[in-house]
Amino acid sequence: INPYRGCVHGCIFCLWGDTPILMADGTTKSLHKIAVGDEIFGTVREGRYRRYRPTKVLACWSTVKEAYRITLADGTELIASGDHRFLSDRGWRFVVGAEQGPLCRPHLTVNSRLMGTGSFAARPSRDEDYERGYLCGMVRGDGSLGLYESPTAVSVETRVFSFQPAAEKWRAVRIRTAARGQVEMIQRIIAWPDNPPDGWCKGFLAGIFDAEGGTTNGSLRIATTNPVMIAFIQRCLRRLGFRSVVEQYDEARGKPIAYVRLCGGLGERLRFFQTVEPAISTKRHIVGHALKNTSIPIASIEPIGARELFDITTGTGDFIANGMVSHNCFARRTHWFLDEDGVGEWSSKIFVKVNAPELLRRELARPSWRREDVALGTATDPYQALEGKYRLTRRILEALRDFRTPVNIITRSPLICNDVDVLAGLAKRAKITVCISIATTDPHVAREIEPTVALPEHRFRTIETLTAAGIRAGVMLAPILPGLTDSRANINAVVREARAHGADFVSGIVLHLGDVTRDAFFQFLGASHPALVPRYLRMYRGKYAPDNYRAGIHEVVDAAKKQYGIQTRRYLEPEPEPAQLPLFDG
After folding, report:
1. For residue 462, which phi and psi values (nearest 5 degrees)?
2. In sequence order, which residues have a C-beta less than 8 Å from that of residue 50 and are 6 or more positions away?
3. Model-level pTM?
4. What is the pLDDT of residues 252-277, one digit of tens each?
5. Contact at 8 Å (CB) between 239 and 265?
6. Contact between residue 287 and residue 39 where contact means Cβ atoms under 8 Å apart
7. Radius of gyration of the chain from its Cα atoms, rounded to whole angstroms
8. Pseudo-torsion of CA 240, 245, 250, 255, nearest 10°?
């Protein structure tokens, strides 16, 4: 029985909902407003560098967790869970961690440097100043008018005529006004102001960039032949905190041309786009630019209590949160038989069989049912986060208890302790076994191979709780990963802790790679343990490790069980089924 199918968000990667996310068109949107299908920027590794690439949002969700405020030296603030990860100049780092103990893992500290584009800027207000500035920049830069409908009092009537025919790289221009009054109004609208406000400066820079600007060789430039235009462009840039230089070029034909070039790297270019927001989105792209030379030190990390936090799944496995590269959930589709891809794409889907308990009761009530063993959770852990809402597993256990049906449960979640009362009642009426999957006692390794699952110490305590309630429970030492969790020291440590927490048994299972998981697992190895890839390629020519390797591992497990006194406890004999009393006595 599998009441759930697919993946689940352990949701350890969570951010504050108001965090601005870099969209694929160069604008930003708050994380809590992101929707499935939105295009945003992530990064992919190409050669020596990560490079910015558009990616689609595959899933969105929220949770309530303890949160931390990360303040950077430039004033940028990020609010995230302690288990969230950011890209630092020394690799991926959790927000909080420790040098030893259960939270031993790579983590951020004061002066750690986060990688990204630099903090984002606020969008401009589209007020009348901005609109007048935009018209000035567009008209003076382009030398022609576009049809404009202003929501303000600014309004100029135009008549359509063919100003410029269409060509290979541009559309036809078809507007005109010849009325003297209208021309004078246009001249007033695009007049140079003596002391332009910030809104006008933003609109002007957006208009002149749309008209004469562009990006070449990683630099933003605006072309013009007008000295007054150059002066106003630089004046507005200074007003908004940007640096620029003027580059003169002698054209082979026509007038010499000047380019006002924005100083600074990708971060300044993005800040320009976000501050002035040009209308032509195709000019705002950063596709293919390398992630380098932009790292900002952390000034402080402080706990701020529980908050509602949000997360997304993307095609690249990351996104740009307020300028910093942020990890996201990488839940893989494992339900390929439901026409879901298990390797090439990532998903946040989980299929919930909402009527499973009712269907099960119907099956168990059939006269042909002989109380065969039932396996619960063979494809997907039956204790998903959604169990708190649907309570499917609990209701299934209640049905098995009522029909005295034996069950074997496989889980990695301490949530099973919520059903101890039902499990204890079932154990009195039928055989029951609970297998808690634990691959290692090392919390760092556990986080690496099972990032969304409870730490080993919590799972060992789960075994202790179950056995104390009279429920047969033990450790499934799985998966045993060659080169990662197969050492004698690791196996001994797991068996020793199992004995200390009252486990009734320990069994070991060596990793096998099916068609769905093989490619994804090798992607993990290539990214995290590239030196192990040749060994795995030699060992896993098929689904299973060589027989002699598996036999050797089983010998190590058996020896550890003998050393620490793990004697597999037999099932408790269930209470006999009560006989039906006769209707009449005698």
Report:
1. -60, -45
2. 43, 44, 87, 290, 291, 325
3. 0.50
4. 556 678 899 999 888 888 889 989 98
5. no
6. no
7. 32
8. 30
